[in-house]
Amino acid sequence: MQQNRFPYVLRLASILIALFLITAALYYMKVVFVPLLFSIIFAVMLYPFCQRFEKFGLSKGLSAFVAVFLATICLVLLGYLILRQVSIFLHQIPELSEKTNKIIGNIQQYASKNLRMKKTNFADNLQIKITELPGRVAGMFANSLPLILSLLINIFLIPLYVFFLLYYRHFFLEFSYKIFPDSEKILIDDTLEKLELVIKGYIFGQFLDIILIGAVNTIALYLLGIGYTIILGFGLAFLCIIPYLGMVVGSIIVLIVAILTTQTTWQPVTAFFLLWMIHIIDSNFVAPKVIGSRISINPLVAIFILFLFGELWGLSGLFLAFPLAAILKVIFDTVPGLRPYGFLIGEPQKYHLKKHSAVHIKRMQSIQEMKEQTPINEVLPGEPGADPLPGDGQSDL
Fold it and tell me: What is the mean pLDDT of residues 6-34?
C-alpha cells in the first residue's frame, strides 16, 4: 500500500520556509558562521602540510601549531602590504580628485568645441561629488570602527579555530559517524573524500593561482609605473574568479587608475593590453595546471552567489562565495536527491549552447526513460524460469 505523499503546494511551501529560515540564520548569525567557515577552509588547505610535519616526527598538536603559525605569518605580511597601499591611496585622494576634475573639464571643453555638444549639469554634479570624496571617505572610515574591531577579533579567532580543527579532526570524523545511520557511512566517507579533494584542488588551486597571477600583475604594473600596484594586481587576480565579467570590470578599473596616476597615454594602454595577455595565458595554460580538474560553476550562478553572499556577509561573503559554491556542488552531486541542483550549479555542456539543443535534450531524455523502464519478461508462464502461476499446486508453507 502506497503512503500518501504531501501535496505539491505543501512541499513547495516547506522548501520556501526552510530557505527563508536558513537565509535569516546566515544573515543574523554571520558573526558566528563567517569565522567558522574561513577556519574550515583554511584547515582543509593546511591539512597536507600538517600531515607532512607529522611524517617528520612532530606530534599531532605541534604539527597543527606549526602549520597554522606559518600560514598566519604569510597572511599577515600580505595584509600589511595591502594596508600600506591603501594608506598611500587615502593620502593621495585629494590629488586624485583634483586630477579627475581636470580630466572631466577637458572632456567637456573638447565635446563642446569639436562635437558641438552642450554642457550638461551631469558633469558639473560629478565634479562636485568627486571634490567631496575625501570628506566622505574619512566619514566612512570613522563609521567602520566596529568592522575593524570585528576584523581584529577574527584575526585571533580564526587561527585558534584552525588549530583545533586540525588537532581534533578524527574526533569530528567519529562524530559524523555517530549522527548518521550505519548505512550512510559509505556516503559520508565518499562525500568527505570529495570535499577534501575539491578544497585542496579547486580552492587551494584558486588561491595559489591568485597569488601567482597577482604577483605577475603587480610586477607588470610596477614596471609600467602605475600606482597602487599591489592592490590592483591582486584585486584583478581575485576578480578573475568571476567568469567573463571579472576581467572586464577589473581591467576597466586598472585603466582608470592608470590614467589618474600617470602622465602619458601609452602607460594606461600598455597596462590594459598587457593584463589581458596575462589573463589569456593564465586561463589557457597556468590555471589548468595549477587548479587541475576543477569544479566548473556557470557564470550566471557565479554572479548570483557573489551578490547573494556579498549582501549577506559583506566583504567576507565575497571571499567565501565561490568556495561555498564549490563545496555545495560536491554535496549536491553526491547526495542522490540533490543531484539536479548540482547539475544547475555546474557549467553547461557544449550541446546546451547549440541551435537545436532542445531536440537533442528531448532525445536523450527519451533514451534515458527507456533504459529505466522495467523490461517485459519474455518467458511465458509455466515455462522453466518463469514465475509460478497462482493455484498451480505449490504450497505456501
Answer: 84
